[in-house]
Amino acid sequence: MAREEKSSVERLKGRLYARDKEKKPTQDRTPLSITTSETPVSWAPQEPEERPQPPHPPLVLPKRVRISFATKFLLGSLLFFVMATAAAAYMFFGGGNIVSSRNIDLEIIAPSLIDGGKETQLQFIISNRNRTSLRLADLVIDYPEGTRDPKDTTRALSHERISIGAIESGEQQKQTASAVFFGAEGSQQKIRVTLEYTVSGSNAIFVKDSEVSFLVGSSPVSLSVEAPSEAIAGELFSIVIVVQSNAPTPVEHVAVEGQYPFGFTFISSEPKADVGGLLWRLGTMAPGSKKTIRISGTVDASAGDERVLRFLVGADPDETNTRIRVPFLTQPVTLSVKKPFIAGSISVDGKTSKNISVPAGKTLQGTVVWQNNLPEAVSDIELVLSFDGAPLDPTSISAQSGFYQSKDRSIIWTKAQDPSLAQVAPGGGGTLFFSFATLPPGSGGTLYTNPTVNLDLKIKGTRQSEGEVPQAVASAASTQVTLASDISLEANAFHFSGPFTNGGPMPPRAESQTGYTIQWVVKNSSNAVANASVSAILPPYVTFTAAIPGSGITYDEASRTVRWSLGDVAAGVGYSGAARTGSFQVILTPSTSQIGESPALTGSALLTGQDRFAQIPVEARAEAPTTELSGDPGYNSSMAEVVNK
Prior knowledge:
Blueprint: H1 8-16, H2 69-93, E1 104-109, E2 113-114, E3 119-128, E4 134-142, E5 148-149, E6 152-156, E7 159-167, E8 172-180, E9 188-198, E10 206-216, E11 221-226, E12 230-232, E13 237-245, E14 251-259, E15 264-270, E16 279-285, E17 290-299, E18 306-315, E19 326-338, E20 342-348, E21 355-359, E22 363-372, E23 377-388, E24 392-399, E25 403-405, E26 410-413, E27 423-424, E28 429-438, E29 452-464, E30 471-484, E31 487-494, E32 514-524, E33 529-537, E34 542-547, E35 553-556, E36 561-569, E37 580-588, E38 605-611, E39 616-622
Parallel strand pairs: 2-10, 12-19, 21-30
Antiparallel strand pairs: 1-3, 3-8, 4-7, 4-9, 5-6, 9-10, 11-13, 13-17, 14-16, 14-18, 15-17, 18-19, 20-22, 22-28, 23-26, 23-27, 23-29, 24-28, 25-26, 29-30, 31-32, 32-37, 33-36, 33-38, 34-37, 35-36, 38-39
């Protein structure tokens, strides 16, 4: 076995413990020596040392607050602003400033009593006592309501602006204006004047105001209105208007205008109104003359409501006007509406209103509902319902429990027909039934334009109050039934006649094309119909080809809809005049699945429009025309059905 080499550790151990080798110190050492120390054996006395006194603590002063420059600037600016404002206020309001409004005098010179309807001159005196001039000065005049321009009394004059320009220091300006004032005699009115101006070096507008009051003297005409302060809802009441001339000379073109609130119904007047119960032309009135107008009407409102009627008197030479252009004065009348002692209402065709629209030529069902609103019983109640109107069929009127009096076309309900009317407790009431019909349009060769039927209800009874004499009570109600126009539509098909030349086999052959003309016919009876149009949808096997140019017929390919826009259709079309017609051409390509059938050439047609008189929408429908051309010359029944190709 080979001898193993010694490791480094073993070699190191060998060197450390070897006896035959001299040890060599690795470091030189310092030799030791004896040193003598001289130290005293006792302590010698020593003089005490003076210890220094600790110094006094320094005096600490508070830190000084430093103010920034921005804060100093802000405080200085604020102080300057306050001082400047105070100085400006002192100078302006104290009279020392050149722009003080107190240094401006604005005087209005006007009569204290001004006669209505006469031109009045006004004078304005402006004095500038400031130390500088006023620039861009304007005088703005605000007149009272009803003031008119003297150059054209038909034009209202509410404001007027007069441009003055500059007013120098110490200068006095005089301006004039004229106006025509109207108002009730003895009424106080006010004129307000404002002077607007600027000063040099400023864009601000300053003002100086002044006003003056005056009394209206005699008006050219006076107006007095006598009317009840209370009105029973639905009951007739009267208003008396008296117009008197106050002018020393004749007053021409005098007119009275009525302005009515919602719910008021004008019934009649004496003399008759020139414009639908709204305007009365009295002509020329001599000095001191009087004219009287009596008006009858009803008001429909809830109990406790108030309604204000206004009457104007003035002059208007233009007889085509429906309102007074130059009113002298206005007189309002306030009515307080009370609940009727016996309330009654009329319903027709399920509708309750002052105006009810229904189709013409139809039998209508109606009801009368009544109630005792008194805290006492009412006896011997009698109800009378009257009918009036040219299109009414008098032979059709009937009542379930009442008596129809054909002589005056009225139905009467009394305790003889209905025992419940003999005595009615407070809050009691009932419902009565009736029916009537209107004549078909054109019946008897007569066509009525804008037809209506009026229904008037009158109720009366005796009030039974304990310890008092029986008192008669009554009330009334009315309803106008407006008949809508009877508009009709026909749809016809042709092959051998009409405005288009139609080709193709007859009878129609499967998978072959055959042309047809479609004709729509529109008739309208009594009222004008607005925005009328007819439309129909084509089936998938029919193709739109053409329409007469300018006929208003169009085709929308996306929806496959043919539309005819007629616009307005006059009353009597198709009755007293020719019917409206519209035609277009289509191509039929039937399928083998339609062999033996008479296919429809269009869908059903719909006519729509708005009745101008009845104010309701109207419509009519027509069945879809087919290949059965019964009204076409040259057609026979064997040509209707599709045959095999």
